[in-house]
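Why run this: before we spend reagent on co-expression, it is cheaper to look at a predicted model of the complex and decide which construct boundaries make sense. The entries below are exactly what would go into the expression plan.
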Amino acid sequence: MVERTPILNFVTHVILFLGFLMAVAPFVIVAIASSHNLKDVNDVPMPLLPGSDFWINIKTAWTTADLGPKLLNSFIMATGVAAGKVIISALTAFSIVYFRYPGRTFIFWLIFVTLMLPLEVRIVPTYAVVANVLSPYQAILDVTGLSWLIEKVSGVQVSLSLGLLNSYSGLILPLIATATGTFLYRQFFLTVPDELTEAARMDGAGALRFFIDILLPLSRNNMAALGTIMFLWAWNQYLWPLLITTDQSHATAVTELKQLIPNVGGIPEWNIAMAGTLIVMLPPLIVVVAMQRWFVRGLIATEK
Amino acid sequence: MASITIRDAKKSYAKMQVVHGVDLEIASGEFVVILGPSGCGKSTLLRMIAGLEEISGGEIAIDGTVVNKLEPRERGCAMVFQNYALYPHMSVAQNIGYSLKVAGVPAAERTQRIQAVARTLELEHLLDRKPMALSGGQRQRVAMGRAMIREPKVFLFDEPLSNLDAKLRVQMRSEIRKLHRRLNATSVFVTHDQVEAMTLADRLVVMNGGRVEQVGTPAEIYSRPATRFVATFVGAPAMNILEGTVELDGLSLLGGSRRLAMARAGLPVGTKVAMGIRPEAVRLVAPGTAGALKATVDLVEELGAGRVIYVDLDGAPFSVMTSEAVHPEPGSAVGLKILPEDMHFFSSETGGRLDVFKVSVPEPAL
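The model came back. Tokens follow.
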């Protein structure tokens, strides 16, 4: 039921406008603060009209936090995570929906349960694994006594080691597994009519061929939606990059923002910090604007 | 072109058996229609031939090769689906040519063959459109083109016309028939629409409850239904059935209110039988005419070319189809004349046809 009365229209618009204000106000304050000089930004209350130092602040923030390479790092990480999630969740959902094998439902629920284990919960073991990817295998060898045996026989001490700290793969891989994405794809695949699958089989397409030629093009919108959400999510990751990038060369823009935040007792350069924030906020904004059309279509699903 | 041999084919899901041992021989180039009510296993049987359903028992052979274990693509069948199942993201040309692309046919040859098929189906001007932008009939033609392009040994149709409106259905029906005459490929067509079945089929297979009830030409099925089910399922309006019991010198019908004098031909007294008469075989006469049944008119349905008159025959519903210009008022009395050669008899127990009666019917003393 859609009601259309002038009063209701007015009220809904007021509510919408209030919501808009609440969402946008902090952003506007950040933008205004980033345009003031050191003195104005520390005035209480801060002047709410834009100052004139915007470009200077931006430039200072850019050079102080070395944002160029950091933004590139962030971009590589976020793109990698988003792409990885899109691909891996499409593949898992494909397997779960289109193949009959024992333990299928169990596996689906296993994936689903990982929703309850976000990175923050399992961060210590994850760190341990990333520090040495082969450590579980080392443990197996040690426990079974194989490494002892090998050492006795050949005199070689077995020590497996493959560290991913301070690398893009270390930044990206642990964040790729996604229950949300798998679920999104699963729901979409379930709406694809069976006849389509059968028609493809009659046309001689095998499973992988069907996946690539039919399913993936059909789930374009889903991929765009998932990719956008996951890009934003990965871009905004703080804890994980902070933990595993001990070396500046792989730090991301979001973690480097802290370089700009004034220390206690330091110069309160909030104008610079806000300018840096604006810069770091920009790429996700561009992605959202660019992907918006597909993004919305992917989430509201069925328009066939 | 290929023959299809189905031997004792069975299909069951978990505990439920849906196809109970079907035997069928389809000659090369034949157009066979499988007709039956929904849920009778006709689509399942078709999908077993296609390879989309596993065969639980028995075997299916195409051109003498048992295909039970073969993938759909290895069987040389092409299928047209009920809802067309066109790939929504591909253009018409891509849809038609997809199987060739999968098979690795070079692009130049592919285009050429797509053009040829499109010409046959008059789709040339639509090749760049997406299925979304096509009408139902056009989509149907694209689905057929997709089946044709592979030059399959066997065409399978799974109720392909049921999503079309009545006028288009008639048109597509004759197009399918024409296409079959030109390609002369073995075709199996599944439908629940008896008009479709009658008009298309070289041979008709009537199925019910997972079993084949009768196989024969449309004319045979209509004039000599093998079972009571076939008799009532084929023909519209449905055949009238009057329950009866064999007596010493004839048949007692309608709970004893009518008697049919005839030799009882070896059936023991008390055997329950059913007598069937097609509505179009009954003649309407003036009430009181000698040898006519008296009945009361309930309802008259005007069909334009004729009318169906529903009458009450001693409490039993009975229908008469006539093309004569008679318009009896509801409630008025009419006489019904039935000729002995138009009567069909079925065993009440098995539903099978009983031909024993016809031979010895002396006179319709109904």
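The radius of gyration of chain B is 25 Å. The interface with chain A takes residues 50-52, 71-73, 77-79, 81-89, 98-99, 102-103, 132, 146, 150 of chain B (CB under 8 Å). Bring this page to Monday's planning discussion.
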